[in-house]
From TrEMBL:
InterPro entries: BON_dom. Residues 39-107 form the BON domain. It comes from Salmonirosea aquatica. It comes from the Bacteria. Pfam families: BON. PROSITE patterns: BON (PS50914). This is BON domain-containing protein.
Length: 111
C-alpha cells in the first residue's frame, strides 16, 4: 500500500561551473583521491589568477603559498586597504579552507 507519491532524485557529486574551468577542475578532482600537492598547486594558480584580475591590487610583490588548502599571502603591498582587499578577494574561492595574511605595507609614520 502506497501512501504518497514517490520521488527519485539524482544527486550529482559535482556541480559544474559554466564560466570558470578552474573551478570545474577543482570540483571534479575534489573527491576522487587527487593528491594534496596537486590540489594545492591548482589552488595556488586559481588564487594568483584572482589577484591578477583585480585591478585594485598590485600583485607584482605578492607571493602565494598553499599548504593543505590554507592560503598564505606574503610580500608587500602599497596600502593597508590593498592588504585587506587581497584577502577578501580570495577568501570565498572554492577549495580554500583559510587565508593567512602576512602581507606588509609601509607605515605612514615612517615616511
Amino acid at each position: 500500500m502506497k501512501i504518497g507519491p514517490t520521488f527519485h532524485f539524482h544527486l550529482s557529486p559535482v556541480m559544474k561551473s559554466q564560466t570558470n574551468p578552474e573551478v570545474n577542475f577543482l570540483q571534479s578532482h575534489h573527491n576522487y583521491g587527487v593528491d594534496k600537492a596537486e590540489t594545492d598547486r591548482n589552488l595556488e594558480r586559481v588564487v594568483m589568477n584572482a589577484l591578477r584580475e583585480n585591478v585594485l591590487i598590485d600583485c607584482s610583490k605578492i607571493i602565494v603559498r598553499v599548504t593543505g588548502r590554507t592560503v598564505f599571502l606574503e610580500g608587500k603591498v602599497r596600502f593597508r586597504e590593498e592588504r585587506m582587499l587581497a584577502q577578501e578577494c580570495i577568501a570565498n574561492l572554492f577549495g580554500i579552507r583559510s587565508v593567512v595574511n602576512y602581507l606588509t605595507y609601509p607605515c605612514a609614520f615612517s615616511r
